Amino acid sequence: MFPILFQIGTFRIYTYGVFLMLAFFWSCFLIWKNIRISKFDEETAFDIVFAAFGGAFLIGRLVYVIFHFNQFGLDLLKFILVNGYPGISAIGLIVGAIGTIYLMCGRKKIDFFEFSDYVVPSLFLFVAISRLGSFFDGSFLGIKTGGFRHPVALYSALLFFVGSFLANRILYAIRKESFSKEFPLIFFVWGYSLVVITMHFLTDPLVLLTEIKAEYWAFLILLLTSCFYFVYYFRVLIGLKIKSFINWNSQYVQTVIKVVPHKSEKSHNGGGKENSSADRKH
Predict the structure, then answer these.
(1) What is the pLDDT of residues 128-178, one digit of tens each?
(2) Are 136 and 147 in contact (CB under 8 A)?
(3) How many CA atoms lie within 13 A of 74 on its CB side?
(4) How far apart are the C-alpha atoms of 63 and 87, rounded to whole Å?
(5) How far apart are CA 115 and CA 52, in angstroms?
(6) Residue pair 135/19 in contact by the 8 Å Cβ criterion
(7) Phi, psi of 6, deg, nearest 5
(8) pTM over cut 0.70
(9) Distance between CA atoms of 276 and 85, rounded to whole angstroms?
């Protein structure tokens, strides 16, 4: 792939860095588009968003350094120089972004869940475009099946694009009061965790060596927790579906019980008539 997009002398432009910038601008555009239809002030909204991006990268980098302390030590330059010493924790990014939004919303006296509804589609979009960067720079390789190497980063990006689309549809459904305010944020946690856990089994073991192993278990816990939330949230609908299925099965069984003896009786009577006619001919 192309880890370095182009180089002028010693100056290098990295492919992943370019896609991070694209992810930032496109996600900001989507936030702006959604904020326009909300009651929130655009300036206030972008103050929160810019702070969230800063908090996400700071916490994401800090968590990565803590789990790889033997590589970084107490050298502050290694912490700052991301190009020379790459690595950002995914769970740290999520905690940093959501935590910063929560703190900023509290400071500006804004409903956190209501504001996050308008941000979640952009979060999905950001991770989708950044995963495309991982695909093009070849840093996120998949396992080989036969002679085919799975483009795991591309799979993840496509799923995150779908997540962004669905989150945007959920946002409009919330405006019609079809879902509760916290639903999109839980959907993001569920969707992101599901993609991470699913793609883990298709990721090349060499790539997994650089991953923080505790993140896998953290995402697994988040996935199970969000699944329990959805079961509770849709408990009435699930109950109705189960009841409908049970009623359908009972009706089917009753129909079979009525039809089978009736067919057997017909078959038995028909067989008797054929035998008697044959005897008369004989």
Answers:
(1) 998 888 888 777 778 888 888 888 889 999 999 999 999 999 988 887 777
(2) no
(3) 0
(4) 10
(5) 13
(6) no
(7) -160, 160
(8) yes
(9) 96
